[in-house]
Amino acid sequence: MLTFAVRRLVLAVPTLLFISFVIFMLLQLAPGDPMAQVPLTVPPDVKEKMRQALGVGEPPLVQYWKWLVQVFWLEPKVFIDWLTRDSALLGWLPDTQLYQGELRVISWQTRSPVMDIVIQRIPQTLWVVGMAYVVGILIALPIGIYSAYRQYSVFDQSGTFITMIGFSIPPFFTGPLLIVIFSVQLGWFPSIYDTTHVVNDWESLKFQLQQMILPVMVLALQTTAQISRYMRASMLDNLNQDYVRTARAKGLSEGVVVAVHVLRNSMIPVITVIALNVPSIFGGAIITENVFKVNGIGQLLITALFANDLPMVMTLTFIFAVLIVIFNLIADILYGLLDPRIRYD
């Protein structure tokens, strides 16, 4: 297992480099000028100096090489300096001072380092998107297991109907619908997510939970619908296998047969869906974050697209690619842990 994990990590490096090159070249073909939002009163020679300062006037391969150096060399040094200077975990260590003021990846829209903006937005996304994904998984797995065990029952048919509706309705419809019902008419929850809210006591925590309920419900609905269907189908495939009949013939209780034997083997394809949906849920939260005004990664990406902020779009897209590669590896490793027949060493 260890050899397989190391081999996959080594192969991930050229994979990510190729992905980053393709993304960069595709964005180079996209129309857009970082000086488009500069006032018309600015002289052309000043605009040209600003364009040169941003590195736009250089050949694409030179721009790509500088982006690689900034992302893989300068940003890690900035992160290490932050760990040894400001973090609570390693702040007691001597300040490394590795970063010496070199040019980092700069956003065309804000003229500030891209990674600083991304790090500021990540907590808001984790609060909403991360919680929604966890809630969706915790609801979906029991529903899928019980629906498969009680196939064609009233619970199974009702669950199938509800999950198909939840998977079919897009977030841009369920979001405003929940706002109209629970915010406008009933007044139970706020319709706009306050990203400046700070949790420091019980009342602030209560308000934080209240404003999280609606966006979490929208995102968790699709997660629950998808994963519960996969869980049900996988459980049905294994419930009719020979090893299940053998376990029952040995006198094992039904709970042990389902929970130990059937569930463990049924989780293998479901893990793929859960692991690979982690990056996609961040991308899928773009609409939900804009509906509820959540100042997270999704809203940052859509704002950068509208502003033709190519460095921001490039960095966020590459982060999604890194997440896909990492969670692919995690899913493959979990295969071997769940199924003894699967071993990579």
UniProtKB/TrEMBL annotation:
What topology does the record note for this protein and the membrane? Multi-pass membrane protein
Pfam families recorded: BPD_transp_1, BPD_transp_1_N
PROSITE patterns given for it?
A: ABC_TM1
**A cellular component term, taken from the record's GO annotations:** plasma membrane
Please state what the protein is called.
Answer: Peptide/nickel transport system permease protein
Record's family?
Belongs to the binding-protein-dependent transport system permease family.
UniProt subcellular location: Cell membrane
InterPro entries to which the protein is assigned, alphabetical: BPD_transp_1_N (IPR045621), MetI-like (IPR000515), MetI-like_sf (IPR035906)
